[in-house]
Amino acid sequence: MMEMKRVITYGTFDLLHYGHINLLKNAKKLGDYLIVALSTDEFNWKEKHKKSYFSYEKRKSLLEAIRYVDLVIPETCWEQKERDIIEYKIDIFVMGDDWAGKFDYLKDKCEVIYLPRTPEISTTQIKNDLKTSG
Ligand code: C2G
Predict the structure, then answer these.
(1) CA–centroid distance, residue 98 to ligand 1 (Å)
(2) CATH code for 6-133?
(3) Which stretches make up the Cytidyltransferase-like domain (predicted)?
(4) How would you classify residue 121: left for phi > 0, otherwise alpha for psi between -120 and 50, otherwise beta?
(5) Cβ of residue 10 lying under 6 Å from some atom of ligand 1
(6) How far apart are CA 4 and CA 122, in angstroms?
(7) 131 within 8 A of 124, measured Cβ to Cβ
(8) How far apart are CA 23 and CA 95, in angstroms?
(9) Residue bearing the CA closest to ligand 1, atom 4
(10) I want to staple 19 with a disulfide (CB 3.0 to 4.6 A). Which of 103, 107, 114, 118 is the partner?
(11) Which residues are CB-contacts of 29 (< 8 A; sequence separation ≥ 6)?
Protein backbone atom coordinates (compact mmCIF):
# COMPACT_ATOMS: atom_id res chain seq x y z
CA MET A 1 0.00 0.00 0.00
CA MET A 2 1.47 3.37 -1.07
CA GLU A 3 2.51 5.55 1.90
CA MET A 4 0.34 8.68 2.34
CA LYS A 5 2.17 11.79 1.18
CA ARG A 6 1.79 14.51 3.80
CA VAL A 7 1.98 18.16 2.78
CA ILE A 8 2.19 21.27 4.98
CA THR A 9 1.85 24.97 4.28
CA TYR A 10 1.78 28.11 6.44
CA GLY A 11 -0.05 31.42 6.30
CA THR A 12 -2.49 33.98 7.66
CA PHE A 13 -5.23 33.31 5.08
CA ASP A 14 -7.12 36.47 6.09
CA LEU A 15 -9.99 37.64 3.87
CA LEU A 16 -9.78 34.26 2.19
CA HIS A 17 -9.73 34.62 -1.60
CA TYR A 18 -9.21 32.56 -4.75
CA GLY A 19 -5.43 33.08 -4.60
CA HIS A 20 -5.38 31.21 -1.30
CA ILE A 21 -7.72 28.53 -2.67
CA ASN A 22 -5.49 28.00 -5.72
CA LEU A 23 -2.49 27.58 -3.43
CA LEU A 24 -4.30 25.08 -1.21
CA LYS A 25 -5.66 23.16 -4.21
CA ASN A 26 -2.23 22.89 -5.81
CA ALA A 27 -0.59 22.01 -2.50
CA LYS A 28 -3.07 19.18 -1.96
CA LYS A 29 -2.40 17.88 -5.49
CA LEU A 30 1.20 17.23 -4.44
CA GLY A 31 0.15 14.63 -1.85
CA ASP A 32 -2.72 12.96 -0.01
CA TYR A 33 -3.02 14.90 3.24
CA LEU A 34 -2.69 18.69 3.65
CA ILE A 35 -1.96 20.41 6.93
CA VAL A 36 -2.30 24.19 7.15
CA ALA A 37 -0.36 25.92 9.93
CA LEU A 38 -2.44 29.04 10.47
CA SER A 39 -0.83 32.16 11.91
CA THR A 40 -2.36 33.05 15.26
CA ASP A 41 -3.53 36.63 15.88
CA GLU A 42 -0.57 37.16 18.21
CA PHE A 43 1.98 35.81 15.69
CA ASN A 44 0.43 37.99 13.00
CA TRP A 45 0.70 41.09 15.13
CA LYS A 46 4.07 40.51 16.76
CA GLU A 47 5.96 38.92 13.88
CA LYS A 48 4.22 40.03 10.70
CA HIS A 49 3.01 43.41 11.97
CA LYS A 50 -0.33 42.76 10.38
CA LYS A 51 -3.69 42.66 12.11
CA SER A 52 -5.97 40.10 10.53
CA TYR A 53 -9.55 41.18 9.89
CA PHE A 54 -10.92 37.81 11.02
CA SER A 55 -9.82 36.19 14.29
CA TYR A 56 -7.82 32.97 14.34
CA GLU A 57 -10.93 30.94 15.21
CA LYS A 58 -12.87 32.41 12.27
CA ARG A 59 -9.95 31.94 9.86
CA LYS A 60 -9.54 28.38 11.13
CA SER A 61 -13.21 27.51 10.57
CA LEU A 62 -13.02 28.95 7.03
CA LEU A 63 -9.98 26.81 6.21
CA GLU A 64 -11.58 23.70 7.71
CA ALA A 65 -14.47 24.16 5.29
CA ILE A 66 -12.14 23.82 2.30
CA ARG A 67 -12.16 20.35 0.71
CA TYR A 68 -8.36 20.44 0.14
CA VAL A 69 -7.55 21.02 3.83
CA ASP A 70 -7.28 17.99 6.15
CA LEU A 71 -5.99 19.60 9.33
CA VAL A 72 -5.43 23.14 10.64
CA ILE A 73 -2.83 23.73 13.38
CA PRO A 74 -1.68 27.04 14.90
CA GLU A 75 1.44 28.83 13.70
CA THR A 76 2.81 30.62 16.77
CA CYS A 77 6.44 31.24 15.75
CA TRP A 78 8.77 31.24 12.72
CA GLU A 79 10.89 28.41 14.15
CA GLN A 80 8.19 25.74 14.53
CA LYS A 81 8.52 24.52 10.90
CA GLU A 82 11.34 22.05 11.57
CA ARG A 83 9.49 20.60 14.57
CA ASP A 84 6.24 20.41 12.62
CA ILE A 85 7.91 18.55 9.75
CA ILE A 86 9.19 15.91 12.20
CA GLU A 87 6.10 15.75 14.42
CA TYR A 88 3.61 15.50 11.51
CA LYS A 89 5.91 13.32 9.36
CA ILE A 90 5.76 15.84 6.52
CA ASP A 91 6.98 14.82 3.05
CA ILE A 92 6.45 18.13 1.27
CA PHE A 93 6.65 21.73 2.53
CA VAL A 94 4.83 24.16 0.23
CA MET A 95 4.69 27.97 0.08
CA GLY A 96 3.77 30.53 -2.56
CA ASP A 97 6.80 31.73 -4.54
CA ASP A 98 6.78 35.13 -2.84
CA TRP A 99 8.76 33.07 -0.31
CA ALA A 100 11.01 31.43 -2.91
CA GLY A 101 14.32 30.39 -1.34
CA LYS A 102 13.38 31.50 2.18
CA PHE A 103 12.71 27.98 3.45
CA ASP A 104 15.41 26.04 1.57
CA TYR A 105 16.98 25.24 4.96
CA LEU A 106 14.15 22.73 5.37
CA LYS A 107 15.38 20.73 2.36
CA ASP A 108 17.31 18.30 4.56
CA LYS A 109 14.02 17.32 6.23
CA CYS A 110 11.54 17.22 3.36
CA GLU A 111 10.85 18.35 -0.18
CA VAL A 112 10.43 22.16 -0.42
CA ILE A 113 8.19 23.44 -3.20
CA TYR A 114 7.32 27.06 -4.02
CA LEU A 115 4.14 27.35 -6.05
CA PRO A 116 3.34 30.33 -8.28
CA ARG A 117 1.22 32.98 -6.59
CA THR A 118 -2.09 33.88 -8.20
CA PRO A 119 -1.59 37.31 -9.77
CA GLU A 120 -3.64 40.44 -9.04
CA ILE A 121 -5.29 39.28 -5.85
CA SER A 122 -4.16 39.99 -2.31
CA THR A 123 -5.78 40.96 0.96
CA THR A 124 -4.09 44.36 0.68
CA GLN A 125 -5.55 44.80 -2.80
CA ILE A 126 -9.04 43.93 -1.56
CA LYS A 127 -8.77 46.38 1.35
CA ASN A 128 -7.49 49.18 -0.93
CA ASP A 129 -10.20 48.58 -3.53
CA LEU A 130 -12.89 48.68 -0.84
CA LYS A 131 -11.48 51.96 0.47
CA THR A 132 -11.55 53.65 -2.94
CA SER A 133 -14.91 52.24 -3.98
CA GLY A 134 -16.41 53.69 -0.78
N1 C2G B 1 -0.94 33.31 -2.00
C2 C2G B 1 -1.02 33.01 -3.36
N3 C2G B 1 -1.54 33.90 -4.21
C4 C2G B 1 -2.02 35.10 -3.75
C5 C2G B 1 -1.95 35.40 -2.37
C6 C2G B 1 -1.40 34.48 -1.50
O7 C2G B 1 -0.58 31.93 -3.79
N8 C2G B 1 -2.54 35.97 -4.64
C9 C2G B 1 -0.33 32.31 -1.11
C10 C2G B 1 0.92 32.85 -0.41
O11 C2G B 1 2.05 32.76 -1.28
C12 C2G B 1 1.03 31.92 0.78
C13 C2G B 1 -0.45 31.58 1.09
O14 C2G B 1 -1.21 31.96 -0.07
O15 C2G B 1 1.71 30.72 0.42
C16 C2G B 1 -0.98 32.32 2.29
O17 C2G B 1 -0.80 33.71 2.05
P18 C2G B 1 -0.65 34.68 3.33
O19 C2G B 1 -1.77 34.45 4.27
O20 C2G B 1 -0.35 36.06 2.83
O21 C2G B 1 0.68 34.05 3.99
P22 C2G B 1 1.89 34.85 4.64
O23 C2G B 1 1.39 36.01 5.41
O24 C2G B 1 2.89 35.05 3.58
O25 C2G B 1 2.39 33.79 5.76
O26 C2G B 1 5.57 31.23 8.12
C27 C2G B 1 5.07 31.59 6.84
C28 C2G B 1 4.02 32.66 6.95
O29 C2G B 1 3.02 32.28 7.87
C30 C2G B 1 3.42 32.91 5.57
Answers:
(1) 8
(2) 3.40.50.620
(3) 8-128
(4) beta
(5) yes
(6) 32
(7) no
(8) 8
(9) 19
(10) 118
(11) none
Q: Is the shortest distance between the CB of 19 and ligand 1 below 6 Å?
A: yes
Nearest atom in ligand 1 to the alpha carbon of residue 97 is 11
Per-residue pLDDT in tens (0 to 9) along the chain, 134 residues? 778 999 999 999 999 999 999 999 999 999 999 999 999 999 999 999 999 999 999 999 999 999 999 999 999 999 999 999 999 999 999 999 999 999 999 999 999 999 999 999 998 899 899 998 86
Using CA atoms, how far apart are residues 100 and 114, in angstroms rounded to an integer? 6
Beta-carbon neighbour count of residue 9 at 10 Å?
A: 25
Residue identifier of the C-alpha nearest atom 16 of ligand 1:
11
pTM above 0.85, yes or no: yes
Of 48, 89, 102, 107, the catalytic one is: 48
